[in-house]
Amino acid sequence: MKVLALNGSPRAERSSTYHILKPFLNGMQSAGAETEVIHIQKLKLKSCLGCYTCWLRTPGVCIHKDKDGMAAALESYNTADLVVFGTPLYHFGMSGIMKTFIDRTLPRIEPWLIPHPDIPDTTFHPERFHKPEKMLLVSPCGFPEYWHFDSLVVTFKQIARMERFEYLGEILRPGAEPLSDSSLQGLFTEYYETLHQAGAQIIANGSILEETQANLQKDLFPGGKQAFYSMANAYWEQQMDKFNVPEEKRHSVSGNTTLSE
Q: Do 258 and 237 touch, CB atoms closer than 8 A?
């Protein structure tokens, strides 16, 4: 199986998203898959103009051809069997660069309006090129609760349904910002090992075992939510000290007290 992982974090290799993707893909490789990672930030993508050049003047070819890295990335996308969409949760949705990548897949399809092959009374565009048959979502966020991902998951399930992907599920990681901290990597050995197992299971079984999913959802840190708040707020207090943020600018959510009080 050929697997393409799209890292939609602007921080590329330094991101929490990639710290999840890397052991996950290593597990896939151990089960025999061929994997490729595209850090979307490095493609320097231009936004889709909605000009329909890729449908009319140069069918299948974007007007931005040779102006950024999308053409080569789209070739990898069109020839993969499974695509892993990796995106940090930004304002309860995907990152801007991930959305731009998805928008720029428009040359893959043709303009004709036809009935959807699978969904009654639904309109569809025919596909011009092969695409991955399967997809999976990977997403970290800074908040510690899982329900912040609800709208993101709905979006990708809708993409899968309408674009005829087999949706293999998602790996969601709340409270994930510490994953990108190089000094804390020793704390996450067990989590990374579980991600490796999950990757191997996807290739071998087509799904992640329930026990593995349950292990992936365990808290990264002991002590519950209040301990997480304390750790995170202490970090930001240190950063404010480092950058000499004035005391009057260090407001809490209420706007009338500093985090240190």
A: no
Residue 37: partners with Cβ closer than 8 Å, 6 or more residues away = 5, 7, 18, 21, 25
Range of the domain at 120: 2-220
Three-class SS state of 91? coil
Q: How many Å apart are CA 85 and CA 98, to the nearest integer?
A: 8
Q: Do 132 and 247 reside in the same domain of the chain?
A: no
Give the number of domains in the chain: 2
Give the residues across from 109 on adjacent strands. Answer: 127
Say what the pTM is.
Answer: 0.92
Q: For the chain, 261 residues long, give each residue's pLDDT as a single digit of tens.
A: 999 999 999 999 999 999 999 999 999 999 999 999 999 999 999 999 999 999 999 999 999 999 999 999 999 999 999 999 999 999 999 999 999 999 999 999 999 999 999 999 999 999 999 989 999 999 999 999 999 999 999 999 999 999 999 999 999 999 999 999 888 889 899 999 999 999 999 999 999 999 999 999 998 887 888 888 888 888 888 889 999 988 888 876 544 444 433
User: Does 70 lie in the same domain as 157?
Assistant: yes
Report the C-alpha gap between 207 and 167 in whole angstroms.
Answer: 10
CA distances (Å), 219 to each of 2, 140, 188, in order?
31, 13, 11
Contact 31, 204 (CB under 8 A): yes
For residues 132 and 44, membership in a common domain is answered with yes
Residue 115 contacts residue 124 (beta carbons within 8 Å): yes
Cα separation, 164 vs 133, whole angstroms: 8
One domain, residues 216 and 237: no
